[in-house]
Task: inverse folding
């Protein structure tokens, strides 16, 4: 594994974890007396789904890559740009998308975990199209998400909700940048 690939996967993990971070900040804002065990449960659920969804997407991408191999890099770019753009728009919105809720209720926790992992499914789909091995990126994505979620709950006790919106915008920018990198690499390889 090259340093460039490691940095790309790390940035991808950071980009994908920003929505989980924002949800965790909201948990910290609403449950200021959150215990370490509760925080660990929330972070583990977010990280599990964030790491599992790329595998599902990868399997789908691997199954259909031969059908779209000539445009796979455009699809990867489009999907990452779409998700990144959505994150930026959500970050710009002034009103919080999370109202009063109990993040420790299993149905709420699973719902939040799935909602914050849809973008990871799309990234996994892109990896399948591009034939990128999935194990290392999944480990990075899951680990980064767990750390981001734990920090988010800690920070949620001490920061304003506006910062969570800013984190979504940063995550969206990172995902778009990675999509541009994938597109540029493939266009450069075709030009050689």
Result:
């Amino acid at each position: 594994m090259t340093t460039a690939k490691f940095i790309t996967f790390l940035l991808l993990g950071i980009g994908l974890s920003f929505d989980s971070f924002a949800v965790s900040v909201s948990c910290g804002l609403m449950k200021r007396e959150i215990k370490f065990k509760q925080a660990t449960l929330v972070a583990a659920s977010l990280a599990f789904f964030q790491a599992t969804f790329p595998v599902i997407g990868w399997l789908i991408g691997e199954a259909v890559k031969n059908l779209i191999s000539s445009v796979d890099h455009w699809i990867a770019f489009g999907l990452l740009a779409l998700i990144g753009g959505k994150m930026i728009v959500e970050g710009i919105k002034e009103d919080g998308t999370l109202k009063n809720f109990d993040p420790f209720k299993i149905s709420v926790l699973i719902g939040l975990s799935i909602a914050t992992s849809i973008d990871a499914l799309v990234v996994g789909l892109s990896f399948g199209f591009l034939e990128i091995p999935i194990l290392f990126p999944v480990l990075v994505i899951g680990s980064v998400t767990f750390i981001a979620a734990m920090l988010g709950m800690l920070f949620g006790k001490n920061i304003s909700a506006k910062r969570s919106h800013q984190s979504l915008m940063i995550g969206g920018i990172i995902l778009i940048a990675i999509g541009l990198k994938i597109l540029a690499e493939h266009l450069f390889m075709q030009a050689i």
Notes: The two ends are 23 Å apart (CA to CA). The chain has a mean pLDDT of 81. DSSP finds seven helices and no strands in the chain.
